Known about the structure:
mainly alpha; Growth Hormone, Chain: A; 0% strand; transmembrane helix; membrane; MFS_Vesicular_Transporter; transport
Amino acid sequence: MCIVDGIIVRIHRLPFIVDAIDQGMAPDVIASNLYQSLSTSITDSASRKSSTLLIMFSVGTIVGSVIFGYLGDKVKHRRPLLMFSVFWLVLSTVLFMFGNVLWMLQLARLIQGLSNSCIWIMGMCLIVDTFPTNKVGKQAGIIVAAHSFGFLIGPPVGGGKLNSCPMHNSDAYHEFVALFQTTGYKIPFILCMALNIPAFIMQLLLVENKKNPSEYPSPGRLDDISELAFSTAGSEGSIHDDQSIETEKGRCMTYLKLFQHNRLLNATLMALLQGFVTAGLENSLTIRLASEWKYTSGQIGLIFIARVIPTFVSAPFAGIVADRYGSKVVVCPFWLLSAAAMVLMGIPSKSTIGGIVPLVALIAILGFSMVAAMTPVQSEIACIVRSHNEGGEGDSSMSRSYGLFNIAYAVGGIMGPLTSGYLYSVIGFFWLCVIMGCTLLLFAPYVFISIGGRRVNVS
Length: 459
């Protein structure tokens, strides 16, 4: 499901559709004619309007995180909500396919953000329900790697984002659009809807672990079940009464209580900073590559692959190590490495030794280290919630906690491009990288102090 989500999120960033609408053209004309007519000039107006699509996606993510974070903690089974997200993805795809005015595209991105938030929140909660806490990191790493894979293959399949902005007046850029150029405008969207079919079937076959707890006892509870089999009737009644009291206490977790825990605040801060740095760098580095090296959008897209490919290794690796030795062992070194790579990224230029090679290497290091530092946070949230529920077995506010993580990342995704775009025009790319790297260093002490240690087997 995360692979499908990653593809669809990337495949819909089609600025030439906005430019076609802006110029009064129908976006569903013959693909080759549209591509040739728009590849020479994408207006500043289209650039600004395309940026609203990114903002609407973040707004949808924020709103959806609040809604589904609340619903996920109230409903008994989370699978129906996850299946409902497939419907929203298909709806957003249909709006993109037939949209011929800007508001339809914006609505599609808003719905897409709602669906994206539901997929992440419900998906992580299902993993936490299924695996013990000291195994969640590995599974989260697999999920992050799968999502990165979707982000990697999305642009060449259906299209990329606009790599120009009002502050940069060079020729407009365009990404190679494989299916769009060869088969027509609507084919990429039909592919998106087709990809949802196997995802929906797998969700139908999914059996939630918490739906039938007696049939699927987790390993950490086998000893408890054996002891209960030899207990007396009176002691059984006492145990069940105590468990009922503990469950009721566990359900009293609220947003206020969640914000009182430094570890959860730290997790949301890390998500905010990751969204800020990632989105800000994507915006400014694109302009840098186009202005300094005169790269086309296709060449820029290839360079950005260097940031994605290392995550296939770093995400599972970080999850496994965090499960065994704790989050602190992973987060601390890779957070510092991310800050260092961010600062050094402003140095390479066309005139420096090695040309583009050092910059590509730094992009790869940043992609590896940032994802490695953030992957343990997914399982960290599960530890936080369970440790503050009575008995260590409840999951009250689990969905809301992951919702807060999503909200923080979306807010960072809005702040990043706005801040980096302004700073780039005022102080240049080098000092922008220094500021962003120093921002990571500024919050490093709080991150290191608040991040958790070794995990225990809590099922």
